[in-house]
Amino acid sequence: MGFQGTYGFSVYDNSGRLVFRVDNYSRRQKYLTKEIVLMDGNGKALICLRPQIMSMHDRWNAYEVEECLFRKQPNSKLFSMKRYSMLQNVYKAEVLVKTSADNNKPKLVPGFRIEGCFERRNCKIYNSKGEEVAQISRKTIGETSSVLLGNDVFSLVIHPGFNCTMVMAFVIVMDRLR
């Protein structure tokens, strides 16, 4: 994964193929950002991310692309991600995911937590059962080298059976929570 100088980023798999990207990833203040769109390697929009302007915990919401881009106030969130608390360690975040309640009304419940320091590219993503589903770490040159590349290039390992698009959306939001 590599962040570009344009504040966009490109994600390559272990074969060197482009699998995800974000273009026009500006560093404007949260209250000026409309949305960030995660695309696949071919440019197809996958998930739309929007900051929640009035939020004490720096919350971001994820929506289906069609609903986000064509509605000013989208109704159905895929997930909502926030810092645990401004008073606690700022590197921890929580992801609330959409689920159906007893009366079939969707609601958001804790689904994932991020622990560690994203700025140092040393963090893990855990599901609600406490199982690790992904890990972010600094990238080195070669497998046995101790030469670290810059923070704009890092490794992301996603465990089998987990939705890679969701993890990429988490990474985008973590970068914005800094």
TrEMBL record:
Matches recorded under Pfam families: LOR
Source superkingdom: Eukaryota
Coiled coil: none
Similarity comment: family membership: Belongs to the LOR family.
Name this protein carries in UniProt: Protein LURP-one-related 12-like protein
Organism, scientific name: Carex littledalei
